[in-house]
Amino acid sequence: MWENTCNIWKTMKSARSGRRFQKVYHCRKDTPGRRAFWGRVSMIAFGCFLILFGAAVGWLPGPGGFVAFVGMAIVAQYFLWMAKTLDFCERRLIAVWYRCRSYFAGASASEKQNTQSPT
Q: Cα 41 vs. chain centroid, distance in angstroms?
């Protein structure tokens, strides 16, 4: 099990952004000796439990929302539609991150100019 987790992590790190979850899905699907039926069912059920638990306690202080994303990542290993959804969300979050970062970098640069200029 630990070896499988390490392989998934290596696949996730090596894939390009916006295709990570789909690559993990395809690698898991193409791996010989996949889990038995009840193993897949139990992992999907565990992932769904984490999603529901994270949604229920997400508003509390702590890692509630993070737990829901871990559950989605577990479910994405078994469903291509979930993998595509998470890849889409990853691309959008990266775009928002760069937009916010450039906005705040520009704001701090203009603040420096205003403080350095004599009045």
A: 22
- Percent residues over pLDDT 90 in the chain: 25
* H-assigned helices in the chain: 2-14, 20-30, 37-57, 64-76, 80-116
Tokens representing 80 are 């291509």
In terms of Cβ atoms closer than 10 Å to its own Cβ (0-12, 13-18, 19+), residue 55 is middle
Residues 20 and 75: beta-carbon distance below 8 Å: no
Is residue 50 scored above 90 in pLDDT? yes
Counted domains in the chain: 1
pTM listed for this prediction: 0.71
Q: Which domain holds residue 80?
A: 2-116
